[in-house]
Specification:
By secondary structure, this protein is an alpha+beta fold. It is about 35% helix and about 30% strand.
Amino acid sequence: MNSTHHEIHYFPSASSKDFLEKIYKLNQENTPEVGNLSSIDHLEKLIQSSSYQFFVKQQNEIIGFIICFREKSLYDSPNYKFFSDRESQFLYIDRIAIKSKFRRQGIGQKFYTHIEKIANKEKIPLCCEVNTFPENLISLKFHNDFGFKKIGDREYKDHSVAFFKK
């Protein structure tokens, strides 16, 4: 199905347990490309401290989501801190997850275009990181094709990332 039929929706202001469970499950299905979350409570705290959260669905199935943060958020991620230490204002893409059978259909592009409009309106850079170990070649290519420039990288004990800015 063409992604033009996938409308982007804001997360509900009071997310139901069912909604949070679906988002959590989708997040966990997409690790290690997105960070592991220890619990639904962890997800809920992440959502509450984030600036933007959007999802797409097909019929009643949530098939993708994106969670983003602005500067000065109460977020203790070392990847977020990389940008906090370098940018006075920015929009940070913390995580994006798309159900495997819906990948490569333009949904990620749709999310990024939506988020980029927000960043452009605010006249701020769009920032994110991508795993380089384990290497996420599809995501690295996607970000390169979308116009992101690599501005740094970091090795952790169990993985490595490259930092990108547009």
